UniProtKB/TrEMBL annotation:
Record field: transmembrane: 7-26, 32-52, 64-87, 99-120, 132-153, 165-183, 217-235, 255-273, 285-310, 316-338, 345-362
Protein name, as recorded: Ionic transporter y4hA
Localization (cell): Membrane
Domain Sodium/calcium exchanger membrane region residues, every copy: 33-186, 220-361
Length: 364
């Protein structure tokens, strides 16, 4: 890798994004030109976050690298959901549910589907570790059912919502499962989450570049945090324009959650596609499934704490249409990962499910 030099775009852009955030924070009714500038810097901050996350990942190796990016991106999502719910009032009661479910559909169908298409572009089949991918998928399915499906059927409170005690239980269970996954991925069964060849052998560390120095990795970690703060802040600055555009177009309010998920998962998507292009599909799956898991396992506990200050209701239960999509996605993903090998057909099926979700989000 090249040494990080002063004019490197990924070092300058996060700082400029923070400056723009300071200028625009708290200002309502931004003109269209400023909205476009904020959107451009938001996209640039996302790209910078991907770059610095990859530097850190290259330093610490897999599976720690994908875990760093998954947690970092989820922090963005959680902070954005909580900040919007605190300031949005009753209209944001379903924002957490919409955003988390959109994140699940984007990761399990969009990121996995796109990665499979890219990973099979140079050959007929791409390989990964079925034990690691299967364990992650089982955890995601359990977390999604516990946090997003059960609230629709519980009877202690009217509407698709948990009682305080049920929310605390779901939060503790989600956090415990996520902590168990982290221990499994990084300590107990680390080899299950390393890239493999078509014959099932673990791939060695990439040899195209020397690992960055500790100093450079520390600098990239600091700039990653700056970029993530910029993404969170600029996304919140941009959110009124997004909500106004959604209302103006006559679209459902749930589209706001989809847009938020698309924004915060952009770094994950780019990093996963790059890994697939390097024939490291397991890294792509670590990013996709790890992000889906972190999106639930960190968001629900945070919402349980934030509910102390939230004045409006917190609706987490999915409707019938979304439950059907979730069930179909879990079944298809299970069939994709069970053999540890996949073709472009599986990638196309996942992308078709994502397209169905996005279409129904706009036209329920």
């Amino acid at each position: 890798m090249r040494r990080l030099t002063a004019p490197h775009w990924s070092a300058i852009l996060p700082v400029l994004a923070i400056v723009l955030l300071a200028i625009t924070w708290g200002r309502g009714g931004l003109p269209l030109a400023m909205v476009m500038i904020v959107a451009a810097f938001l996209g640039g901050a996302v790209l910078a976050a991907v770059h610095h996350a990859e530097v850190v990942a290259h330093r610490v190796g897999e599976p720690f690298g994908s875990l760093v990016l998954a947690v970092a991106v989820t922090v963005i999502e959680v902070a954005l959901i909580v900040s919007l719910m605190i300031s949005g009032g009753p209209e944001t009661a379903t924002l957490a549910r919409d955003t988390v479910f959109a994140a699940i559909m984007i990761t399990l169908n969009g990121i996995i589907g796109l990665s499979l298409l890219v990973g099979t572009s140079r050959g007929r089949v791409t390989a990964f570790n079925a034990e690691g991918a299967g364990g992650m998928l089982a955890t995601v399915a359990t977390l999604a059912t516990l946090s997003l499906v059960l609230p629709t059927f519980t009877t202690s409170r009217s509407g698709p919502a948990f009682t305080p005690a049920q929310l605390v239980f779901a939060a503790v269970a989600s956090l415990a499962l996520y902590a168990l996954f982290v221990v499994t991925q990084t300590i107990r069964h680390r080899d299950y989450f390393l890239p493999v060849t078509a014959e099932g052998k673990v791939l060695p560390e990439e040899e195209h570049a020397n690992p960055p120095t500790g100093r450079r990795a520390a600098g990239s970690l600091a700039l990653l945090l700056v970029a993530l703060v910029a993404v969170v802040g600029l996304a919140k600055v941009e959110s009124p324009a997004i909500e106004e555009a959604v209302r103006g177009a006559g679209l459902p309010q749930s589209v706001v959650g989809v847009v938020i998920a698309l924004l915060v998962l952009a770094p994950e998507t780019l990093a996963a596609v790059r890994a697939a292009r390097r024939e490291r599909m397991q890294t792509s799956l670590n990013l996709a499934l790890g992000s889906a898991m972190a999106s639930i396992g960190l968001t629900i506990p945070t919402l349980a704490v934030a509910s102390i200050w939230l004045t409006g209701p917190l609706s987490l239960g999915l409707g019938a249409t979304h439950m059907v999509l979730l069930a179909l996605t879990v079944v298809v993903a299970g069939l994709t990962v069970v053999h540890g090998r996949a073709t472009s057909l599986q990638g196309g099926v996942h992308l078709a499910l994502l397209a169905c979700f996005l279409f129904l989000a706009v036209s329920p």
